[in-house]
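Researcher: Let's try something more involved. This one mixes different molecule types, so please make sure each is placed in the same coordinate frame as the others.
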Amino acid sequence: MGTVAQHREKANHHLAFLETIPDEFPDWLATVAFYAAVEFVEMLLADRGLHSKSHEDRKLAVRRDFKRLFRHYHALYNASLNARYEAMEHRLNASEVRSHLIEVCLKHIQQFATTRIQRDS
Amino acid sequence: MSPTTSTGPIQLRYNGGQVVVTPEDKDRFVMGSQHAISACQGAVAFDRFVEQFKNDFLRPLYTWCCEHKDSIQACYVPLPFSSSPIKVFMVAKSAKFDFALSDAIADVELEFQEDRWPCDVLQISSGSPEELQVFFDPAQSLQVYGHGDSSSAPGKS
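Model: All components are placed in one shared frame. Result:
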């Protein structure tokens, strides 16, 4: 079970990697964006002394405790899953991933988590 | 205990001793009445659960699918239902991830959560049956909605 600081460090690590992924890999853009969101959610949970053991567990925690994030988290979870498992022809392109999943969904989760944790500390 | 040939209901009492059970295949067995009562109670509870599941989960899910028919091609619930949350797969009409549908799915998940039916609803893109198999087995699933088949309304099977 990580601390808030450890999850923040991991989230920043994923965000740094996200910056380096070229447009030919929208599936990996979506996947890394989702894992960054996972770390922001884990930051929020760690702040409450909680920790999730699986994707399902974490999704349930967001649904229960952070309803305002749920649409964005759900989109990242679902779109990244599809990016990993669906055929290439169904892939979102890099601009769709960047403009929606990263700029809207991930940014919203990031802002919510950092603001909430600053407020609580 | 009443004989099995009785035309009225068979009385099974917790202190009734041994019960001889004769199933359809005639593979007869004996069990204590308390175990038999537990089995009956389990069956009643299961029937009640199935009824509740149909009324409180499948019917609203079907209605929701109908309301989103412009975006959804089919909806499946894989069997058997394992532990909570219940898995639901929405096959989108779009060949790509549909962000508007994603928001609607997130909202319906929240509604089901509030109604005490936690579920995990996933949108998958329209594709061949082989492509669906990556996520679940349609042959081993309950088709709640889809493919223009109005008889797929839950409870009509």
